[in-house]
Specification:
It is found in: Cytoplasm. Binds ribosomal protein uS19. This protein is mainly beta and 183 residues long. It is built from two helices and 13 strands. Helix content is 5%, strand content 44%.
Length: 183
């Protein structure tokens, strides 16, 4: 997909047009949404290829963001960008504090838990498939694997220090203090 061998990361999506002068509506996957425009180097994914673009103006609009793509000055041309993913280089993300993780770093980690009264015996609950933002806290969605304790999908609150006791990126594991209760 990318000739430079870099690490592209989807950071937003163009959802439609705004006005008649080539502006587009943007759904940002960053938090806060304005952080999307701090990267300074954006690409759009079109038909499997990444094409560099420049957002020369942007602003909050309602619950979302709108932006102008340099060289796109009419609604018809802006319409052709609808649905395209906005991609940035993953290494352009700011470093995080100790114990903080980007969602993409947690995806694919094996999630291990302990059964009640099992002592130190850990059981594989599944792998982190994706996360959900709920407002109160983020939620890990665990997908069962062939080695999991069972074939159930699990939703686990992502609460470091509470339900999540340890994240180890080098070992690719996340330890969960969440007991399996059979009804």
């Amino acid at each position: 997909m990318n000739e430079s061998g870099s690490n592209p990361l989807t950071a937003g999506k163009i959802t439609g047009c705004y006005g008649i002068k080539g502006w587009v509506k943007i759904h940002s996957f960053t938090d806060p949404a304005e952080n999307l425009f701090r990267f300074g180097k954006w690409m759009l994914q079109r038909r499997g290829a990444l094409v560099a673009v420049e957002f020369d103006h942007w602003k909050p609009q309602g619950k979302g963001m709108v932006a102008h793509i340099a060289g796109v000055d009419d609604r018809d041309l802006a319409e052709s960008y609808k649905g395209l993913q906005i991609v940035v280089e993953a290494d352009s993300l700011p470093p995080l504090e100790e114990g903080e993780f980007y969602w993409r770093q947690l995806q694919g980690l094996q999630a291990w838990g302990r059964e009640p009264d099992s002592g130190d015996d850990r059981v594989l609950l599944g792998t982190v498939d994706y996360l959900i933002e709920t407002g109160a806290n983020d939620v890990l969605v665990l997908k069962a694997t062939g080695d999991s304790i069972d074939d159930k999908e699990r939703l686990i609150p992502y609460l470091p220090g509470d339900t999540v006791s340890r994240v180890d990126l080098e070992e690719a594991v996340i330890d969960i203090d969440w007991f399996i209760h059979e009804e």
